[in-house]
Amino acid sequence: MTPRHGYDPGDEPEAGTRPAGDAETAGRHAAPVDAADTPEADAEPAAVAPVSAPASAATPAARSLLGPAEIRDLAEMLGVNPTKKLGQNFVIDGNTVRRIVKVATVSPGDTVLEVGPGLGSLTLGLLETGASVVAVEIDDRLAEQLPLTVELMHPGAPLTVIRDDALKITDLPGDPSRLVANLPYNVSVPVLLYLLEHFASIRAGVVMVQAEVGERLAAPPGSKVYGSPSVKAAWYGSFRTAGKVSRQVFWPVPGVDSILIAFDRRAQPLESEELRRATFALVDAAFQQRRKMLRQSLSAVLGDSTSATEVMTRAGIDPTERGEQLTVENFLAIARAQLSGR
């Protein structure tokens, strides 16, 4: 049977979800991510005085998630105009929220880290399961409003809001075991890798990212989209695609496709921090010149072409291979050979 309106069965937006007009399309998903893997985070906005939740957010009283009308009311009340600069974009469909939570297998008692909660669509879905949520939000207005919205919709729910840049946090309360987030697409890869590097308590999760970036994260060696994010993600664990997300469930309507990426961390770290840094330096060099043979692309890191050939030969890697043909274990073998030869 042909899916209605192009959606897979069960993934249709809730009744009442409508796409934004053309004037509303300049949001987080409006511009594709550049091929660069590590864009810088944007500057933090100035503080804004806290406000109370609008009365409309409480109707109907039985609702436990925000709908399109409540989300737009909150945004208008706060003076929030979704911007590309902060990567702001809001999910307005409850079915999609619950789908993400289900894919992430969030259970009562879990402590979940959410980055970029925005107006709270996904936050409420996570709290609905009985989990605790630690939310990191860079926007003052959104960070101050979120507890008010949660208290209105889920009184007494266990929520902690951290007003900070996700690329700068060094401590998280509750040792979150899962990461579930609609990541800002302009910094999705750096944020994901930063959190996995600094917070070993995160064992699994689901993130929503731009489809092109998500496919790279989950790509196997030899794939056309295999690259630096693929190798670095594999250092921490296994990544897989977990379903596409319709553009119509967002406000503003995105200009690119979105995808869910699920991951599970390795039971034990692949190697030491010293070897991780050395491996990532090799990965960066290899994919900066991905069309070149490794003995050339790695020459700047390993000394010169001759030294690179010697190191790779000791590691059991053919110097004429290219970066997209190597697994994370192959790059690690080169790093081991490099450090042992010092």
Shape: elongated
The CATH homologous superfamily of the largest domain corresponds to: Vaccinia Virus protein VP39
Number of strands: 9
Cα separation of the termini: 63 Å
How many strands, what sense, and barrel or not for the largest sheet? 7 strands, mixed
Q: Sketch the topology as an H/E string, one letter per element.
A: HEHEHEHEEHEHHEEEHHHHH
At the first level of CATH, what is the class of the largest domain? Alpha Beta
Helical amount: 25-40%
Category by helix and strand content: alpha/beta
The strands making up the biggest β-sheet line up spatially as 4-3-2-5-6-9-7
Q: Please state the CA-atom Rg, rounded to the nearest Å.
A: 22 Å
Count of individual helical segments: 12
Tally the structural domains. Answer: 2
Beta-strand content = 5-15%
CATH topology term of the largest domain: Rossmann fold
Low-pLDDT runs of 5+ residues are 1-12, 15-62
Corresponding CATH architecture of the largest domain: 3-Layer(aba) Sandwich
Mean pLDDT, rounded to whole units?
84
EC number: 2.1.1.182
Organism: Cryobacterium cheniae
InterPro entries: KsgA/Erm (IPR001737), rRNA_Ade_diMease-like_C (IPR023165), rRNA_Ade_Mease_Trfase_CS (IPR020596), rRNA_Ade_methylase_Trfase_N (IPR020598), rRNA_adenine_dimethylase (IPR011530), SAM-dependent_MTases_sf (IPR029063)
Keywords: Cytoplasm, Methyltransferase, RNA-binding, rRNA processing, S-adenosyl-L-methionine, Transferase
